[in-house]
Amino acid sequence: MTVELTPDVSGAPGPAAPSRTDAHRLVLPDAPPALAETLSDGGAVAWEESLTIHTYEPDAPSRYPMYLDHRVYQGSSGKVYPLPFIEGIADEGAPREWKAVHLENAFVRLVVLPELGGRIHVGYDKTTGYDFFYRNNVIKPALVGLAGPWISGGVEFNWPQHHRPATYLPVETQIERADDGSVTVWCYDHEPFARMSAHHGVRLRPDSSVVEVVVRLHNRTKERQTFLWWANVAARVHDDYQSFFPEDVRYVADHARRALTSFPAADRPYYGVDYPALAAEREGADRIDWYRNIPVPTSYMIVDSAEDYFGGFDHAAGAGFVHWAERRISPGKKQWTWGDAPFGHAWDAQLTDDDGPYVELMAGVYTDNQPDFSWLLPGETKLFSQYWFPIPDIGVAHQATPDAAIHVDRSAEGIRIRAAVTSPQVGAMLTATVDGVVVAARRVDLRPGDVAELNADTVGDARADPSVEMTSGLRVELRDARGRLLVGWEPVEVTEGEPWVAAEPALPEAITSVEELYLTGVHLSQYRHPTRSPIPYWNEALRRDPGDVRTNLALADRDYRAGRYAPALERIDLALKRLTRRNANPMDAEAFYLRGLVLARLGRREEAEQAWGKAGWDATWAAAAGFALAQSLACTQRNRAALRVLDTLDGAVGHDARRGALRVIMLRRLGRHDEATDVLRAALADDPLDALLRVLGGSTAISDAGVLRDVALDLRDAGEGDAAAELLDTVTTAAVTPAGNHTPLAHFLAAALRDAQGRTEEAAAHRSRARAADASWAFPSGLDDLDALDAALAADPSDVVARGLRAMLLYGHGRRGDALADWNRAVTAETRDAVLLRNAALAAYNVGGDDDTAWGLYARAIAAAPGDARLLYEQDQLARRLGDSSAARLARLEPQEQLVLTRDDLTIAYVGLLVAEGRAGRGYEILTTRPFHPWEGGEGAALEAWDAARTALGMDVADPPASLGETRAQYVPPVARHDNGETDYFATSLPELLLFSREAADD
């Protein structure tokens, strides 16, 4: 038996109320018989059972590396390398079976999709029959994600940046059933950029409607990393949907705080919309907490609040949801919408078949804006929880806790209180007091889904507008039968004054102090600014004070991460010279820790260990330095010494899954197997899906080649060379996935490992197999890959494969001049590798400034891969930059029109050329017969071609057909590029991918 858990909301007003006759409606299965009794007894259950969902499949990724460092994406860098980039989505959908994990109790039903980043796809309130999270009945990605496809609906967990880089990649899952009756679906993510790891556990408890998400973010690298965490909740909207923030929120801000407006009524133009003018024509049109009033794509994030909750409420359905998390770590509260207008509706149609529009109500932890990144120290783990629960017909919440939510209507006639709970409460007491005197009270029995009401006569100077402060003595409480407070509300006192707005930093020469130059550079680096580099600020700081400690260390860290070890060491030693001139024990020992990392890469192990020992004197760096030292000792089989170091860390510094794994390895070497087993068991209880711990436990279930590669390197660095080599052999046979191809690099890593062990014949064999392997989607990244490729080229400077791969890595690490040199050496007269030729062409134009060479290399790449539309598109974009006439460009493309029409971007460019050359009729025919898929930030390109074609044909301006995928925006959005061609400092998105961008050889 199956049951459809889709509520009937067909009567909801507004343009988004679908007919609900969709043939692809998602149908959820009942709990298996083995769990049915637990469920009927009020327990919580979880099980795995696939779902068939109508799905629009993404194309295969491009086989060319996309760097896109200067692409503006969510206000920060849209760099995607080394993740392969997907550029197209199927026009037609088809049924597909997706892995799914189901959670259910008496009140709530959830579905988690492991193959889509572990997102919650369904959040259904069984008590009201309401999907409190937007349920998308199809999987219909649009080109919104960092690496291409992104889907709307449910809850997306965004880290280490927004949107989640791995949002369309799988996570590993495990169901945990605890002694308290709770069930948790653990999802393990090994993010593709810095290679940090994260667990998020979706948890239901018996007798509770609360959805808890338990998160462990772990920096398993040796470098300090930046990150953010935004849980992105979608809610289905229409004219009667209202978002709510805490009552102390008076202002909201745009990305990077570039603009402010008051909230909930906007008191100034925002995103190009003059809300006060609209309100003068229609009362309430300035209320941006209502979806119906926002006509353009709009973000707003609260500026500040002392409260822990926010959410959304569907007044037509009489239901909604609350998010709650501790304000001290979770200040971020945000709404995003495409806007209730034709432009936004067109985007909605790109993302669903007929489930209508949605808003995103995002909750940020360790972040309160976008972009707004925080830091994770090496080995650091951050642990936190977020909570969501559905609410019945109480209205918007004016206060909420994980136990209950409350709404307080205030008017001249009195107050009306409505409250709801998240667990059964017998004999709860709802009271209203003024200056401690009870004016109304009621004892009630409540379950999730019930509403308790209480009315009281006029109280003081209560007024109809809940944003107006009331008598300070008024207080409303809901307590359980034992007197424990479930939720309490009282009027909010708000300080006057308008919050600050961000300003663009001055150019380096205009900044007066070295400190401000340093801090400006830190900001640009930490926030991953896409168009302004920190380097000029730091260089100016050193021009004024060559020995400045902080600036030298910042540049040393940058050099180290780019694999420029010798320059990094010079900067560190210069910083240490000043830092320790009068104080041999500085307050901050980061310089010693970083020196150890650099020395280790240079093979100077003894000096590295000395540096880490000194860094351990500083509590900030004790955990990172202690682990690095212990691992180095373990690598050279000094096992007891390694254990002694680990012993000094336990109980003194924070949790680090790496320490438990290293301890297991040491204990096993020393023959203390029972102790090792106990340590492993305890470590897995904390981190149940940690990859290294699972491998040490004998698990063979890990299938992700990138994860296995990283585990192999962990084993190598702990001195387990043979085990590492065995895992790398497994990686070399792993299937290629949209996450990439690890085969060639696994061979090069294995070769370097075997060389270090003196097994030179095996090393040579691995290098030979690396050269023979299919290198499609093999995009190396990180210092381990760089060191392995350096070793390969030291062994054989004529290795074209290693050189081409190293060039890709160097280009991605910002070493553009070195990459150009490598590609130039790799390309010979006989080269027929289209990827290599294209990469060399890209560098020739961007870095070498050699237009003729770039053009010639593109011509050779196309000759090597004549049916490759991506190459044809890039060649045409290069032709435009080189000043080719529209006639010449059209003559080049027209004979290949069928290939041209396989890409949206190339088709739009082609239509523009047809119009320019008097062939508007053909261009118009293409626009009316071919479907298009816009990409976020690229809106308007197809529409511009549409208008140009109609104008050329003497036709009136008209709205485009739905197949164009977009329509006209009613308002002018915030500027992204100024008239002089410069990108606005605060731009949040740009339509260009910016593959072609002249730049210096290196930062």
From TrEMBL:
Region feature Disordered, mapped onto this chain: 1-21
Pfam family membership, one: DUF5107
InterPro entries per record: DUF5107, GH-type_carb-bd, TPR-like_helical_dom_sf
SUPFAM superfamilies in alphabetical order: TPR-like (SSF48452)
Originating organism: Microbacterium lemovicicum
The protein's name in its UniProt record: DUF5107 domain-containing protein
Gene Ontology molecular-function annotations: carbohydrate binding
Highest taxon, organism lineage: Bacteria
Residue ranges constituting the DUF5107 domain according to the UniProt record: 79-391
